[in-house]
Amino acid sequence: MTLSSQVKGGRLPWSGLLALSCAAFTAVLTELLPAGLLPAMAAPLGVAESRIGFLVTAYAAASFVAAVPVTAALRSLPRRPVLCGALLGFAVSNALVALSSSYPLTVAARLLAGAMGGTLWAMLAGYAARMVPAERRGRAIAVVLAGITLALALGVPAGTALAQLVGWRAAFGTLALLAVLLVGWVRLRVPGFPGEPPHARVPLVRVAVRPGVRPVLCVTLFLLVGHQVMYTYVGPFGAHAGYGRTGVLLAVFGIATVGGIWLTGVLIDRFPRRTLLVALALVAGVLPAIGLGAGAHGLLVGAVGLWGVAFGGAPTLIQTALVDASGPADADVATSLQTTVYNAGIAAGSLIGGLALDALGAGAVPWTAFPPVLLALVTVAAGRRHAFPAGRRAVAREARHAVAPGARSVAEAGAVAVTCRAGDHEVRRGR
């Protein structure tokens, strides 16, 4: 199966993109499932419930540490075997958790899963970008990252319900089986791409200092800090407002993110900058509204829904901007940096929100979340030239600038442009 045949006529390679989306779904579900199983897992493993919560921490810490060095070490290898290896790592990790009666062994299995997660997240957006012509990247990345939204909105609640029905060990065993089945799907429907030869490899530092990359990483950090402050402590804030149904608020947020990712898929390739500005402005506007109108429960629920719509598409918009700024050939390295920043934002947001909760009370949570989100909005507004341009027309011209001898169409030229270093050189020179 050639890339040109997949994208001929402007069609997306749906089967391959959905396989990558399921990989994202599996990674998120693997990461977060223990959080819903604290009492069930604590007794069999002989530890307190807080120690089961640390299994999520172990995953995030390993992902944070492994993303950049592992991605850099594997850059020269063919991409599809690396992707399959990460999925098999998830299968092994989840199988170990399902069979383990030892807490240290369970922690080790979670560290393995985190390292695989860091590797996987560094690949997914760049892989999707290389499967389609330049002008379709945004929609392809939106399809793949929709797996995150579906895992948060549906997968984690469904996985928790399954664990309550058949036992937590069976739930993790099911995840292991899902990862194995995904390997077969990836081998059948996801195209293979070569790794980067040593002589053509751009050093990580050079990728990090490109003018468009740094603002995107800053926006990632600012947005995740602000979002995580509010999301982590939405329960205490709801109780402070007299609305103790945290599950309802989280369900409203999760369902709304599905609408957000759909809207993003429709708009991202035509209006990327405008859509991101509107999304960040909505998040920034919702936070003061929550803080001022928390006593009105209808307003609170509606604001949380609007927050979910706005935030649902923001990661895809930011990820697409990063791929455009770094170039598809170096997207894995750039995304590994973003994975590290993403996890740092989650950790910092949870910590800052907790400190604000202890020092100022739950009423301060939305006001603590507001400044970093506003910084993200200002950074996007200021990054018009390199990181967040007005449109993706320049990106769409990459294929035409990189037409290789013998290419029969713009779509085929796009395939050549993202799979050979000569084409990538043209892209960077044109930018």
TrEMBL record:
InterPro entries: MFS, MFS_dom, MFS_Efflux_Transporters, MFS_trans_sf. This is MFS transporter. The keyword Protein biosynthesis does not apply. The chain crosses the membrane at residues 52-74, 81-101, 107-128, 140-160, 166-186, 216-234, 246-268, 275-300, 364-383. Its main location: membrane. Keywords: Cell membrane, Membrane, Transmembrane, Transmembrane helix. It is a multi-pass membrane protein. SUPFAM superfamilies: MFS general substrate transporter. It is found in: Cell membrane. It comes from the Bacteria. Residues 16-387 form the Major facilitator superfamily (MFS) profile domain.
